[in-house]
Design a protein that fits this description.
two-stranded antiparallel ribbon, 4 strands, 4 domains, globular, mainly alpha
Length: 673
């Protein structure tokens, strides 16, 4: 008779599937219990040794080798500890402050201070920035291990959310101070957080918003090969509403209690006591608000098939004719077990990817904005030479049909993004860093910020307008066509002409504003640099593209095939006009928003604006934030290959087109960048 060794491994509890939550996710109570356990801040106090033991037990159970005698409770406790500290996709231990279990201690501290110091502009800016930095840490730590999210995307979203939150808070604080009861002022941080989430979440999930998400059956099996934007929009709305509901009790209940306490007990009015109580109250609210709000909808949400787009519905019914309900991942934390796709799905062959075209297409404004947001990101400037060389090698290898085995689609597009940011599209040579489109934000934010600050004296106007046009000339020279060269003499000449126009415009308008300063608002003078830049662009771009303007350009069909042998001046001039309008649109928020904010800030905190260094620093920062979004927003207004009706062509060009393509009604042309 054989005896069993007590340490012998065997597959205990085979009915327990650790890839799924312990509690029924079809009920609100089950979901609440799940999130209460995984987000519990007490998980932070578990020792490293205990976490390692929990991870080992989970791994042993997955391969059917858990120690004999392990109970169900022990197994689920190990899974809870594992989920709280290890990444669900990579299995690596996560950064402590980025774990979901750190939400309560982390957020309670930031939120408590935010609720206490909500009146002063500097405090608003600091705590909103801190909050968004913390949220970015959480997003980065919990990012999907299968789908790469670039670090620069996290930073961009954080900066955009900080700008939205700070602007909202400052404006509402001003309104509250003059018209509303003091208690209302305590709710301003909540409104600022709502504004931040409204910006941050859609930007973080821009790819899903544009391209849609995969729908599945109840078991997680893919249905069809077409993604649904309807499902992605529903998921986006649910996550946004969840974030708002999470913030509601945390940022509304403590202010009401503190307002009542301060009326009855004067001791609670001091900064230290007020902060301590606000932090404590925020922590208590967070402990319950986080799991209760996250549990509102199942992670794997559902919708009736009739709500899908026709082409998605058709794709689903082809593979599953009896389907009436489809499922999708609403998003929070991407787990591998949610979708039962094949292990090679993310590493599918990438030979069908055409890197000569934008990833997101060119037919919608949103797609073009997404493309330019990536290619002009200033964070591309910080990519190391080694990383750029690796990206260039991967792009060139893919073009030659020699993509390294195992390369994912995301890795390929990431390499293309870095390649486009640093290498010339025609010559393939690495561009001068100061002339790259990704240097537009750091370069222009300094020049434009100082131009807005020092806009009154003649010497300052001449210097900063010259510096601006010099920087633009460098950008034009660096990004000039490698096929049809633009002479250096022409670039310099255009820069000189633009500088002369901008300087003359600025000095003339400054003189008019000064003459009629009794009649004109003080703020009007701050808009002079914008008018000067608009005037410069109206001269610079037509001169830079004088040959196109004077001689015309070829028109093509939708596939880029040349139509006829005549060139069209109408198409060329429309393209130039579109480029001018794009440049002016880019300049508008950059040269208008910072002056408006600084003017308002000067009325609220005069010492900030009267201090030249502080004034210039804040203006440069505000300009940079505006530039980050304004550049892709302006460039995306018109498609790179724009179109026009054939009736708008010159008669001889129209005749030439119809000779080779009698049924053509629309022609296309490159508008230029």
């Amino acid at each position: 008779m054989s005896t069993t060794n007590p340490t012998e491994s065997s597959p205990p509890l085979p009915h327990i599937d650790l890839s799924k939550p312990r509690y029924d996710q079809n009920t609100y109570t089950g979901r609440a219990r799940h999130f209460y356990e995984t987000a519990n801040p007490l998980n932070l106090f578990v020792s490293t040794r205990k976490l390692a033991e929990a991870a080992q037990l989970v791994k042993d159970h997955k391969r059917g080798a858990a120690p004999k005698g392990t109970t169900e409770d022990q197994l689920w406790k190990a899974k809870r500890l594992y989920d709280s500290a290890y990444h669900p996709d990579t299995g690596e231990k996560m950064l402590l402050i980025g774990r979901m279990s750190f939400q309560v201690p982390g957020q309670m501290t930031i939120t408590g201070f935010m609720l206490t110091f909500y009146k002063h502009p500097a405090a608003v800016l600091f705590w909103q920035a801190t909050n968004q930095a913390y949220m970015a840490t959480i997003n980065f730590t919990n990012r999907s291990g299968d789908k790469f999210i670039p670090t620069d995307q996290l930073v961009k979203c954080g900066l955009a959310a900080t700008t939205a939150a700070t602007t909202t808070a400052l404006i509402l604080n001003k309104v509250v101070q003059t018209r509303l009861p003091p208690l209302i002022g305590r709710f301003v941080p909540f409104m600022a957080i709502v504004a931040a989430n409204t910006v941050n979440i859609p930007l973080m999930r821009l790819d899903e918003f544009h391209n849609g998400i995969q729908v599945t059956d109840k078991e997680g099996n893919k249905l069809g090969d077409v993604r649904s934007k309807t499902a992605s929009n529903q998921a986006l709305f649910k996550v946004l509403l969840t974030r708002v509901i999470t913030a509601l009790p945390v940022m509304v209940v403590p202010p009401i209690i503190m307002n009542s306490l301060e009326k009855r007990f004067p001791i609670t009015r001091g900064p230290a006591m007020s902060t301590l109580l606000s932090v404590g109250l925020a922590g208590l609210c967070l402990w319950f608000a986080v799991p209760l709000s996250l549990a509102m909808w199942p992670q794997q949400s559902s919708m009736h098939i009739s709500k899908l787009e026709p082409e998605v519905r058709e794709s689903v019914l082809k593979v599953s004719p009896n389907t009436t309900t489809v499922y999708y991942n609403k998003g929070l934390k991407a787990h591998k077990h949610i979708f039962k796709e094949t292990a090679t799905m993310d590493k599918s062959p990438t030979t069908n990817i055409d890197l000569s075209k934008p990833r997101y297409g060119d037919n919608t404004y949103g797609a073009r904005f997404h493309h330019f947001l990536e290619t002009t990101s200033p964070l591309n400037v910080f990519a190391s030479n080694r990383r750029l060389a690796e990206a260039a090698t991967m792009v060139k290898a893919h073009r030659e049909g020699q993509t390294p085995q195992g390369t994912t689609e995301d890795q390929l597009w990431e390499a293309k993004r870095l390649y486009d940011s640093a290498y010339h599209p025609d010559t393939g040579e690495k561009m001068l860093v100061y002339g790259r489109m990704s240097f537009q934000v750091p370069g222009n934010m300094i020049i434009t910020g100082l131009m807005i600050t020092f806009y009154r004296t003649t010497g300052a106007v001449i210097f900063w307008q010259s510096a601006n046009q010099g920087f633009n000339a460098l950008a034009n020279f660096t990004n000039r066509s490698g096929v049809k060269d633009i002479p250096t003499k022409q670039v310099v000449g255009c820069g000189v002409a633009a500088t002369a126009v901008a300087t003359t415009t600025a000095l003339t308008l400054n003189k008019i504003v000064k003459k009629y300063k009794q009649r004109l608002p003080h703020l009007i003078g701050r808009f002079v640099p914008f008018v000067a830049i608009a005037a410069a662009n109206m001269v610079n771009i037509p001169l830079m593209r004088w040959e196109e303007w004077n001689n015309g350009i070829h028109v093509t069909d939708q596939d880029g095939n040349k139509l006829g042998d005549k060139v069209s001046k109408n198409a060329a001039r429309t393209g130039v006009a579109q480029s001018v309008l794009s440049r002016i649109t880019i300049a508008f928020p950059i040269l208008i928003i910072p002056p408006v904010i600084m003017e308002s800030l000067g009325k609220m905190v005069p010492s900030v604006v009267s201090n030249t260094g502080m004034n210039a620093s804040l203006t440069v920062i505000l300009t940079g934030l505006c530039l980050w979004l304004a550049v892709p927003m302006g460039l995306a207004i018109f498609p790179q290959r724009s179109s026009m009706h054939i009736s708008k062509l010159e008669p001889e060009v129209r005749e030439s087109v119809l000779d080779v393509s009698p049924n053509t009604t629309t022609v296309y042309y490159n508008k230029g960048l």
